[in-house]
Amino acid sequence: MSRVYPFDDAATARAAIGDDGTLTEWNEGARRLLGHPAAAVLGRPAAELLADAGPPAPPRGPRWAGTVGLRHQDGRTVPVWLLAHRRSHRDEQPGGWLLVSPLTDARPPAADDPLAQAGLMQSPCAVAVYDDRLRLCGMNAAMARVVGLPAERLRGLRLPEISGSPRSEELERGMLRVLASGEPLDVETFLRTGGEDRAHAWLARMAPVRDGTGRVRGVCLAAHDVTDNHRARQRLHLVNEASVRIGSTLDVTRTAQELADVCVPALADFVTIDLLDPQEYGGEPPARVTAPVRLRRAAHRSVLDGVPEAVTEPGAAEEYPACSPQADSLTAGRTITTSVAAGDMDQWLHWHPERGERVRRLGIHSSMSVPIQARGLTLGVAVLTRHRRPDPFTADDVLLAEEITARAAVCIDNARRYSRERETALALQRSLLPRSLPRTAALEVSSRYLPAARAGVGGDWFDVIPLSGMRVAMVVGDVVGHGIQASATMGRLRTAVRTLADIDLAPDELLTHLDDLVVRLSEESGPDAGPGEAGSPGEVGATCLYAVYDPVSRRCTLARAGHPPPVVLPPGGTPHVLDVPAGPPLGLGGLPFEATEVELPEGTVLALYTNGLVWCRDRDPEAGRELLHRALGAYADSLDATCDRVLHTLLPSGGAPDDVALLLARTLGLPASQVATWDIPADPALVAPIRKQVVEQLDTWSLSEAAFTAELVVSELVTNAIRYGARPIRLRLIHEEATLICEVSDSSHTAPHLRRAKTFDEGGRGLLLVAQLTQRWGSRHHAEGKTIWAELPLFEEDQ
Predict the structure, then answer these.
(1) What is the pLDDT of residues 246-291, one digit of tens each?
(2) How many contiguous H segments (helices) and E segments (strands) does the chain have?
(3) Is the full-model pTM beyond 0.85?
(4) How does residue 234 score in pLDDT terms, banded at 50, 70 and 90?
(5) How much is the pLDDT for 296?
(6) CA 787, CA 169: separation in Å to the nearest integer?
(7) Are 422 and 632 in contact (CB under 8 A)?
(8) Are 482 and 612 in contact (CB under 8 A)?
(9) Which helix (DSSP H) or strand (DSSP E) does residue 180 occupy?
(10) Using CA atoms, how far apart are residues 88 and 59, in angstroms rounded to an integer?
(11) Distance CA 515, CA 589 (A)
């Protein structure tokens, strides 16, 4: 069955063979070629038309071509060149093979036939031919339109003479290579053609022109305008560049500047980035705004030095009325393009004369305002302006600007959210850290705290806690993680340390209790990790170093939980690491801590720090410790100066990668002349002589005014120890500048209790009297028993 075609069906011999080998199509051209009418061959095996004996082997692949001897109707053999295509079963078309062959009467056009020249002269592709001297021989109409000059006027000229562009010399050098090598060459370049102001992107394809002997006689140049493809690649490259360059930091201003830098000069000649102030909207950017709009300049960029287009400097705020492109874009929630020529900016420029003067002086002609929006919030507006580029913004430019701005908006919002959380965490951190360190007679101290430059505020902390007996506790700790949660956990741990220190726990015992607290915090934080998830130890972790220094004995007791050991600088010596048992980090639970005791001569400098001080990605921790030793070794009687020197030596100029807490302490000693000690016999009748010796000692210290109160307190504490304590019993008086400390120690571990005696009770009023007469009192336990202490304030008249 033959198909009907809208053109001369007999110009080609065409037949089709089904999968079963029978003929399914036979056109008029096939009849003319072999003489068989369609009715005589359709449905019959195609092999019957073969002049050779036996069926041929089935062709392989989707196509086959070759000469086959076919049987004519009159019996003769006709050699026929066949082109066969494999057909698949689709669109109701049967499978098999389609065979075609041009008829023998097809002839090439004569030399004077217009069709013979159509390939050159009437081709839609711009083509020009140059001779072996690279002078123009001829060009077709398409090339003449590209050049913008008639071909007959240009014949005999070289390409640079025709174009006048320096880039045409590059093309001519390419043609010279083709002429010399005989090999084709493709060159992509930019040229202004036809007198246009804007350059187009061209793909120049050059091929050698040969004569009948194969000798190269010239060069054929075909030019293809690929400007649209080039612009598409540029836009894709710009979007890719924006995704790489924008958002390199979590700083709002830096991110805004990166957006402006990407758009200039690729998309505009001048770009401004203005952001809303969230504080004017209750701390959170709004979904929509109304005019007038107050914006703060975050960044701008220009192709001109000094940014002469800018009326507002970065950091300054300005109010934009309803007639401004910025306000119109933000209130509409979409991109708005304006043009000076169309009069779109007249009202705005009249309202702001200074801006209008700069628009006229610099030749600004087009503007595009793109709202910066992310996660349903309006953050600000980007305004792109052109004055050097003569073309206005197109619809493609709008899409590109919106794509880049949308990417930048997410980065700006991320930076805004991070900055807000960082500021909140930093405020929380500073409120939880000590604002000033207490002045004590045991230590001279100085400290520094620096939040991480990029990772966010963490949970590092330090503290100095006065204890009884003029002793002082020093604490440095580090909570795992960053952000508000880490700061809040740090506050809870710091409070816990102060509470545990107040009951005078030994360093190893204190860390054991603190470890239990961290385990409980981990269990409490478990449900926050996800629905149905139980907390487990290790979700909250921390390290800590706790040290207690006694200025009377000049001994220091230390214990640490996974924290870096302190560095000690002895008077006249060199810095070295103090050997303190490491202990497990807090939060593992059930593991023991071990304390060590060392003697520190008066004037020893002790450095306690978190690992952010010595840890750095570009530096080995051991190298960091060496730098710390070197900076600490230059100590010259100023702890503040030493703190600054340590930070300057160890931290990079861009800021610390992690939180840093540094505490420097110089030990002080209490002279033996300010301490008096008595061994108390276990006989209440001998308390009176002890009171007398106390009064005499106070006279020696010129503290006669405090003698009466001190005598009462000593009498009650000693009597209480004799009645309820165990031998040996010892009384110690410590005279500090503004305080007199009374301590009574015995070997009993029974803690005293303050109670209110009844009216007819003979005793029970001793500790109540002590509490009323002293500034503060308490007890502490140690390996040998316990100590009851009381502090009496001294005034100038007591001296």
Answers:
(1) 988 888 999 999 999 999 999 999 999 999 988 888 778 888 889 8
(2) 20, 31
(3) no
(4) confident
(5) 94
(6) 100
(7) no
(8) no
(9) helix 166-181
(10) 15
(11) 6
Please give the helix or strand (H or E) that residue 397 lies within, else none: helix 395-432
Tokens standing for 411?
């980065």
Q: Name the DSSP class of 787.
A: E
Q: Render pLDDT for 395-429 as a digit per residue (tens, 0 to 9).
A: 989 999 999 999 999 999 998 887 887 777 667 76
- What's the average model confidence in pLDDT over 704-729? 87
DSSP string, 298-310: EEEEESSTT-TT-
213-239 as b/e: b if 16+ CB within 10 A: eeeeebbbbbbeeeeeebeeeebeebe
Alpha helices in 503-638 (DSSP H): 507-525, 621-633
* 8 A C-beta contact, residue 360 and residue 341: no
Q: Is it true that the peptide bond before 292 is cis, omega within 30 degrees of 0?
A: yes
Q: Given this model, what pLDDT does residue 110 score?
A: 57
Q: Residue by residue, what is the 3-state secondary structure of 552-576? A: CCCEEEEEEECCCCCEEECCCCCCE
Q: Which of 152-166, 255-269, 489-503 has the highest mean pLDDT?
A: 255-269
The closest alpha carbon to 408, from 586, 611, 239, belongs to 239
Name all contacts of 148-154 with Cβ < 8 Å and 24+ positions apart: 148/193, 148/194, 148/195
* The pLDDT value given to residue 570: 94
> Is the Cβ–Cβ distance between 632 and 613 less than 8 Å?
no
Find out whether 554 and 669 touch, Cβ atoms under 8 Å.
yes
Instruction: Give the DSSP H/E element, type plus range, for residue 715.
Output: helix 707-724
CA–CA separation, 440 and 402 (whole Å): 63
Q: Classify 91 as helix, strand or coil.
A: coil
Q: Which residues contact 797 (CB under 8 A, 6 or more apart)?
A: 705
Distance CA 512, CA 743 (A): 27
Residue of 63, 84, 221 lying closest to 154 (CA atoms): 221
- Whole-number Å distance between alpha carbons of 635 and 568: 12
- Burial label for 266, CB within 10 Å (0-12, 13-18, 19+), is middle
Question: Please, which residues have CB within 8 angstroms of residue 524's CB and are 6 or more apart in sequence?
Answer: 535
Q: Is 341 helix (H, G, I), strand (E, B) or coil?
A: coil
Alpha carbons 65 and 81: distance in angstroms, whole number = 7
* 309 touches 362 (CB < 8 A): yes
Prior bond of 265 cis (ω within 30°): yes
- Backbone phi, then psi, for 592, in 5-degree steps? -80, 160
CA distance 313 to 118: 63
What are the tokens at 365? 């002609």
- What angle do the packed helices 395-432 and 484-502 form, to 10 degrees? 0
Q: What DSSP assignment string belongs to 439-499?
A: P-SSEEEEEEEE--SSS--EEEEEEEEE-GGG-EEEEEEEEEEESHHHHHHHHHHHHHHHH
Among 76-80, 94-98, 583-587, the minimum mean pLDDT is found in: 94-98
126 phi and psi, to 5 degrees?
Answer: -70, 120
99 phi/psi in degrees, rounded to 5: -115, 130
Structure confidence at residue 763 (pLDDT): 43
Give Rg (Cα) of the chain. 48
Half-sphere exposure of 461 (CA within 13 A, CB side): 33
Contact 370, 406 (CB under 8 A): no
- What average pLDDT does range 674-688 have in this prediction? 85
Tokens for 629? 């030793």
pLDDT digits (tens, 9 = 90+) for 616-673: 777 777 888 899 999 999 888 899 999 999 999 888 876 677 888 999 999 999 888 9
Cβ atoms 409, 245 nearer than 8 A: no
Strand, coil or helix: 520: helix
Distance CA 663, CA 678 (A): 37
Contacts of 373 (CB under 8 A, 6+ apart): 333, 379, 406, 409
Strand ranges across the sheet with 596-599: 458-466, 472-482, 542-550, 555-561, 596-599
**How far is 587 from 515, CA to CA, in rounded Å?**
5
Specify the 3-state DSSP secondary structure of 118. helix
